[in-house]
Write a structure and sequence with these properties.
Length: 138
């Protein structure tokens, strides 16, 4: 057995760790940072759900990039928020985010990103996570 292993998402891990360290020093900015991450995910979701924007993104091959940004910001939010993104009282719009990922035109990308939400999220398997969200991802 090796003593060393690599993360499958090293950049995401660094972002989460650095932001967590910053929030430990600046506890009064937690809500501000979480709202900023929430806004990023919401803008990405709204952009992908707007037909005119989606057409322009597809023509320049940026639709997948926006989708990945939305999923990664969801994972970051889930790690930084004490309750996570999946709990009922979360401000994060998990159901619409999951639906946007599922409805993406490239099925392989959609499956990959649903796996990221399932396996990279901190609170996905918590008892507080609504069962319908878990079933929607699986």
């Amino acid at each position: 057995m090796s003593l060393f292993f690599a993360s499958s998402f090293p950049a995401l891990l660094v972002i989460i760790e650095m932001t967590s360290d910053y929030l430990k020093k600046e506890e009064n900015k937690t809500d501000l940072i979480l709202n900023l991450i929430l806004a990023l995910a919401s803008v990405c979701k709204d952009t992908l759900d707007t037909p005119n924007c989606l057409e322009k993104l597809k023509s320049s091959n940026k639709d997948e990039l926006i989708l990945r940004a939305m999923v990664e910001s969801t994972v970051v939010y889930d790690h930084l928020s004490p309750a996570g993104a999946f709990c009922k009282k979360s401000a994060f719009p998990m159901r619409p985010v999951i639906q946007t990922v599922k409805n993406f035109s490239q099925e392989s990308v959609s499956k990959e990103l649903l796996g990221v939400l399932q396996h990279r999220s901190k609170h996905f398997n918590d008892p507080d996570t609504p069962r319908h969200l878990q079933l929607l991802i699986k």
